[in-house]
Amino acid sequence: MEPDIEAEYQGATLKISLQRFFGLFSFNKTLSIVPLNREMRYCNAGVTNDPEKKLTQLHGEFIVTNTDKKLRPVAVVKGEILKPYCEFKILTWPPGGTKVDINPSIPPGHRREIAFDAFFEPRIEGNGKSIKLKIILVDQYGNKFKHKCKFQFLDSGLK
Predict the structure, then answer these.
(1) I need a labelling partner for 73 at 20 to 30 A (CA). Which of 138, 147, 156, 157 fits?
(2) Which domains does the chain have, with CATH numbers?
(3) What is the pTM of this model?
């Protein structure tokens, strides 16, 4: 990996890789993704026509910046949870907008807020505790962006 920044200081050359420097963020060929921790939550859910079926609902939000060096539009086309395995769709808001789109392209150098809601079995009995899950976001070029996210319990009133 070549350094992104080189600087000289008192006769020594300092080489910095931004990918290592910003270890909290996911830098790949196409996107930079930052989780909005205040918007990561989960709750109990159910199915109206099957009261015995108990689900967990996750909600999460991220800030996504298109960093593609080829200056192509990029879209986050799906998300995955590893354990228990679940796929989900991504919703995107344009800046300052209220219209929600499913998987729209993000122009080069631009930023968007994305969100997801995922439902899966079995129900995670939270009892007010937070949980950590690995979330994977996938762009239309097949690049995968992994994040360990902490979800706070939100009481939905379902037992």
Answers:
(1) 147
(2) 25-153 (2.60.40)
(3) 0.71
